[in-house]
Amino acid sequence: MIPKEANWLAWAREIEALAEAGYTYASNPYERERSIRLRQISAEIIAQYSQLDEADILEAFAAQPGYVTPKVDVRGAVFRDGKLLMVREAMDGRWTLPGGWADVGETPSRAVEREVQEEAGLTVRAEKIVGVYDANRYNGKLPLFHAYKLVFLCAYEGGEPGVSFETTEAAFFAADNLPARLSSFRTTPKHLQDVLAAHSDPAFETVFD
């Protein structure tokens, strides 16, 4: 776990983003050397204040070369008979709205429809964006990369709740009986609050940030 006000992490991520952009657009070897050193400084900061190994951090940085932008996570809010679908993550045993990283080449709506199908076995149709969130603002873990979270309200079209290699349970829950043990990196009380409001109010306006 990390402190909520972990300024060092925000600084390290920004240094890494500047390093990658600098390396990508460098016009001479000296600029590339400075960018490599900035990347190392970022890894040193994160290793100093976390339990991560510096070499592993540098390896993770190398996986996304070029101009650094936020990753995109999609989540689907699916209601049936007034109850909300949630899945239990195999990774941490906690509950979340089904979803995951969007794939290259997918539209956002297709990404969330696919994720719900893969994680919960249901066919759904994306109908409305509930919110666009700064995902790094609402969790207590160590996110090396910045991410945006798109939460969709999805219409249930068919199927029964099932599981995948990523999930161990899938079920519909009444609004007053939602699981308390949330996988906070994936779904937070704020997300659920907005999802329930969007479901009950057709005039609900999309939230952001």
How do the SSEs run, as a string of H and E? HHHEEEEHEEEHE
Helix content: 25-40%
Total helical segments: 5
Provide mean pLDDT, rounded: 91
Structural class: alpha+beta
**Strand fraction:** 25-35%
| Low confidence ranges | 1-5
Which outline best applies? elongated
Summarize this structure as a short list of keywords or feature phrases.
209 residues, alpha+beta, 5 helices, single chain, elongated, 8 strands, disordered N terminus, eight-stranded mixed sheet, 35% helix
Describe this structure in words.
With 209 residues, the protein is an alpha+beta fold. The protein contains five helices and eight strands. The protein has helices at 7-24, 29-49, 54-62, 108-120, 189-200; strands spanning 71-80, 83-89, 95-96, 99-101, 123-134, 147-158, 167-173, 207-208. Strands 1, 2, 3, 4, 5, 6, 7 and 8 form an eight-stranded mixed sheet that branches. Helix 1 (7-24) runs antiparallel to helix 2 (29-49) and helix 2 (29-49) crosses helix 3.
Task: Describe the protein's topology.
Blueprint: H1 7-24, H2 29-49, H3 54-62, E1 71-80, E2 83-89, E3 95-96, E4 99-101, H4 108-120, E5 123-134, E6 147-158, E7 167-173, H5 189-200, E8 207-208
Parallel strand pairs: 1-6, 5-8
Antiparallel strand pairs: 1-2, 1-4, 2-3, 2-7, 5-6
Helix pairs in contact: 1-2, 2-3
Q: Can you give me a brief rundown of this structure?
A:
This protein has 209 residues and is of the alpha+beta class. It is built from 5 helices and 8 strands; from the N terminus they run H-H-H-E-E-E-E-H-E-E-E-H-E.
